[in-house]
Amino acid sequence: MNSIRQVPSRMKTRMSETTLAAERDHFEKQQLSSISKAINSSETPLKEKHARRIILGTHRQKGAYTFWSYAMGLPLPSSSILSWKFCHVVHKVLRDGHRNSLQDCMRHYSDVAETGLLWNNIRDRHGYAQLVSSYSKLLCNKMEFHTKHSEIPCSLEVTDELLERTAGTDINNVFQLTVEIFDYMDTELRLAEAVLRQLNMSIAISTLTSGQCKLAPLIQVIQDCSHLYHYTVKLLFKLHACLPADTLQGHRERFHDQFHSLKTFLNKARDMMYFKRLIQIPRLPDSPPNFLRASALAEHVKPMVVIPDNEEPEEQEEDDPEPLIDVSEAAPIMNSQPMADIFDQAFGPPNNGFDDRELQIERLKREIELLQAELEKIKGEAQRYITQLKSQINSLEAELEEQRMQKQRALVENEQLRIELESYHHRSVEHESLQATFTEAEKRAQATDMRYNKLKEKHAELVANHAELLRKSADTVKMLSATQQTQEEVERTKLQLAFEIERVRQEADMKMEEQKFDMDKLRRELEEKSSEIHRVKASLQTTEKTGEMMNSSMAALQAEKERLMRSVSEKDAELSSLKQAAQLKESSLLQERDRSIRELGELQGKLKEKSSREEQLQQKLLEEQFSLLQATVTEAENIIQDAVAKLDDPLHIRCASSPDYLISRAEATLSSVDKVQADHTEFVKNMKDAGGLVRALTKFSHLAADTITNGGATANMAPTDQADRLTEHCKGCATQSLHFLRDLKSKSSLKGADPTSIRAAVQKILRIGQDLRPKGMDVGKDELGDMVEKEMAATSAAIEEAVRRIDEMMNQARKDTTGVKLEVNERILFSCTDLMKAIRLLVIASTDLQKEIVESGRGGATVKDFYARNSRWTEGLISASKAVGWGATQMVDSADKVVLHTGKYEELIVCSHEIAASTAQLVAASKVKAEPSSKRLGVLQQASRHVNEMAANVVASTRTGLEQIEDKDTMNFSGMSLIKLRKEEMESQVKVLELESMLGNERLRLGELRKKHYEIAGVPLEQMAQDNGLQTSSYATPSSPKPSKPTLMKKPALAQKPNILSKSMVTIVYQTLR
């Protein structure tokens, strides 16, 4: 029986544990869902319902450890928007969460700081990186401040009395607290300025989700700044009451900067539509408070931030309603249930059916409790707002009353001080007369002395009263600083009075000295002074009257006190009336909120209808634009296909076109391809306007078809090899164009369409067209004369430079080398110097002969006309002049390398041969137009032979030096066996075969280089063979000459080898030019 009775209690315990575990799992699941929905990477503002659930979770668990356990698993480094929302949620948890949340957040202080440092040096496209950095600095500063000052909550909602207790009486602590609040305010304002700086104020940015995402945290910033501004004003007035104004100059300047920044921020935020429905932003005064005037504290009004209760409507979601937070002591859950219900829940209903009424009842109870909690929260906020208003009214009334009382006291004190000053003057005069009377008559002086003592006692009493009034004034100054300016005037009056008293005392002492000398005279005038004694008595009576007047003034002050008490009672009555008005205002505000919610629902419905209509119109516009694009693409395909058909049309074979026209068409096509690509990119970004892409495709199709058609016409006139390649590239261009156009016709492949392949095909056509252009056709014949003079001048300059460099090398060699090496270097450099001098004489003789040829052959034409008429001869002369200058430069470089032991002696020999060939070419080119009997021609030939002799001397000097330097070791055959000799012989034969093979390969390479040289020089091998009666080999006959820009168009650098003909080709060139 006992065991049966104990079943319900055991089942009750088991059900309680099961229910608590289920509630805990439900709570953790709900917290995880709220955190994941509140902190995500979508650029939308944080929803209040998710933040509210997170905050309620901190109150339920009395801490934020559950929030941090889930939040630290978020991928904060992956998204700046995710980090931004994380900082926003942490800010709300600090402000509105449980008071223990600050300690949990401080444990993750380093994580918040590292998040800010991570995004500090990163630039993202949304602009959140720098905002996250500023926000993390704000959160770190906030946690440090409230950890240090634990009396001030993170919501910053404290009374003025608590602020006074936190600051303390030590002025150094007040000073330090003010600096910390300044730093706190700076971090808040920096975040606000960073957010507003990134917003485009020219549009309604606050109505967009991207703008609202950035603006949402500024609500907490506005709440913090309103409290920080009020605390700063209070603390600065307290500092100015205790410290000199000069010491606080920096504080005032910093406050003024923050005041203007805060006012600008609040004005901008007040104009934004986003904040108008979420927060009532206070207005700051036009100018900052004047801390130098103590009464300005009464003019200060604490800015009040009001958060309306228009919470966003709850959406239909899949998650369960959040359970009620148990803020009271844990009461037994199942006590009220009957015993039968416990057995039904444990073992099921008697009929083994499923009864869900209990679940529905529990769900309804939870919903009722949630609604009650929300209602209590609303009532609490309203009561807190009313309390704040009441406290503000009370403080303002108390300050007003204090100022009135202080004003009355100051007036009374001023009047008393004035009366005392006058009485003191009278007493000073009386004191002098009493002293004189005392010296004249001892008896009467005794009476006078007694009266004087009484007067002194009265004076001391007045002084004591004056000191008491001063102490009261000092206490009044400490309580309220509104009468500071009046007190300063009183102090100045005191100083003046003290100075006047001191002056009177000094005058009295002087009088006493004078009166000692006049003692005899005063005795004789004793009778006369008796009348003055009567006046003293009258003055004493006046002093007594003054005491009576002071008593009457005290009675007046008592009456004023009673009047003030009556005024206090009247103010209490007014306060009760204000309370009733506040309650009426609260009810009206609730009604206004309900009406606003209804209007908001209606406006949202209209907005959704308008948005759907706009989406339909946008979709229709997109379809029309795409159909227009498809029609344009179809027409472009027809144009290009028609151009491709002409390539295989027999009637088109007779058509011909020049390479120049083909090049112009190809270049225009390339420009149109770039335009198509740019307009395609713009169309992909904004598909509402296809006009630019349609125009670009129309132009591209015509230009591409024109290029293809002219490419086929040019191929009809070109050699077979190049014609086939040109036709193939034209067809390839058409194929790539049609493929690109097909991609544009489909929405799926529209974004991936790329005209790069078309550009490559057109560039191939352009290169073939440039190859088909004849050589030298882009060279102006009128420029040949100038080029001849420039090349001859350049050759002379190169030779002068070579002579100078050889002299420098000679001097350097004498410093660095000795012995055989110095002898070899001097011999080589002397021979090179002689060769350069001979070349200089050759150039001078060639220039003179050239002038003679031009003067004798031009007739009545100009020099430029003569050169243009004999262009081939001019080109040969220019080529020969370049060869001579280049050979001189190469000779100097090779000699420099030999002297420095970094080159080979064979290079000097080759350069000598090149110079001999170049001079032979220059003589041959000059001899073509010269008269056989010309004396200057003989001089030129003599100079040419001298150059050849000097070149031979260079070769001989080089070889001799090489033989002197080489260390020729004689072979030692002693001790070598037959087998070893045989082996050495075989290795030598292998080396000989290798060298012969290398020699053959190098000769073949030399032949190919000379062949390419002749082609670049512009002398076709067929023409040279025909001029000399030779048969051209098959490999030397190209299908078509490869066009290239002639050497006349660009002067090569001195270190670049020009187009030099060998000695064997000089005769051929001479006959050709002849």
In percent, how much strand structure appears in the residues? under 5%
Record field, number of beta strands: 0
Number of domains: 5
CATH class of the largest domain: Mainly Alpha
Most strands sheet: none
CATH superfamily of the largest domain: I/LWEQ domain
Overall pLDDT score: 75
What overall form do the CA principal axes indicate? elongated
Which structural class do you get from the secondary structure elements? mainly alpha
Low-pLDDT sequence parts: 1-12, 311-354, 775-779, 1018-1074
What fraction, in percent, of the residue positions are helical? over 70%
**Fold-level CATH name of the largest domain:** I/LWEQ domain
Subunit structure: Homodimer. Interacts with actin; homodimerization promotes actin binding. Interacts with CLTB. Interacts with HIP1. Interacts (via ENTH and I/LWEQ domains) with BCL2L10.
GO molecular function: actin filament binding; clathrin adaptor activity; clathrin light chain binding; phosphatidylinositol-3,4-bisphosphate binding; phosphatidylinositol-3,5-bisphosphate binding; protein homodimerization activity
Family: Belongs to the SLA2 family.
GO cellular component, one term: cytoplasmic vesicle membrane
